[in-house]
Amino acid sequence: xxxxxxxxxDLKVRFATEDGIVQAVSGISFQLEAGKVLGIVGESGxxxxxxxxxxxxxxxxxxxxxxxxxxxxxxxxLHVSDTEMQNYRGNEIGMIxxxxxxxLNPVYRIGDQIVEAxxxxxxxxxxxxxxxxxxxLRQVGIPNPEARVDDYPHQFSGGMRQRAMIAMxxxxxxxxxxADEPTTALDVTIQAQIVELINRLKxxxxxxxxxxxxxxxxxxxxxxxxxxxxxxxxxxQGTKRDVFYDPQMPYTWGLxxxxxxxxxxxxxxxxxxxxxxxxxxxxxxxxxFRPRCPHAFxxxxxxxxxxxxxxxxxxxxRCWLEVEFKRDHRDETISPGSAEAA
Length: 342
What we know:
The protein is an alpha/beta fold. The chain is built from 14 helices and eleven strands. The protein has helices spanning 48-55, 82-88, 100-103, 110-121, 126-139, 145-148, 158-169, 188-205, 216-222, 240-245, 250-257, 323-329, 331-334, 338-341, and strands spanning 6-17, 20-32, 37-41, 64-72, 75-76, 93-96, 176-180, 208-213, 225-230, 233-239, 316-317.
């Protein structure tokens, strides 16, 4: 059995605020092997980015509380010192942040920022670090890198800025790469290029990738395993085939129903999930998706555990509905109007 690079066990993250305790992440667990891609998907506020930032040690503070384990090659990153964490951050675990325009310093040249990241972790002089930066920019597909290395962020397009962020994340050849919504606000052509680039670089560097997004359409192109999060909890977990072809959680159905389908008759309107995600300070009783779920019933007042309820090992869901009922009714959500159109 292959040893996982990253083994997250029952991770819980809480933040104390004046309004109450924010239950940002409530018990996420997963394993990640080299060369594999884990997709984490969910609406805004579901806990995806907090999970990623916690893995990087970026949520530490006097008001933060952590439980569980984050084992990287056997070392629990939740309990290493800040100084030790700096050695893991960048060297072992790299991150592509959500918005490159706010992640890149607007008054420093792109190349200087990547050089700074390289020299913070490697014993290279400026000339060698600059040569490495130019090569990284070439690897991520930035044309004429010898000249573009001296450009400022505002001189790059959105897609080029995202490529520069990927180059910075890869600058120290990390074993784990976290991509936090790297395709948000990019048009679909550039999205496809970024996904293809991350897939290619994953193979070249043999990195494990955590790909965070709200878009299941993007996840379908890159992920091996998928975690669906809602209200800080994992509500469904399995392989890409499990989640796309045998989804068990009504929230997953809603996400799938919002994707335009080319393989079925077109419905008049795409499905939308009614209501809004709950406050992480005042969560509803029982199943957290209950107030928005069209199939909620009395038993949903008790919160279901994340369990293997189907015959496929490793396909977990958090829903009280009977498996046969779910398989009979989910197409009403995933493919609204398809029966009438057919």
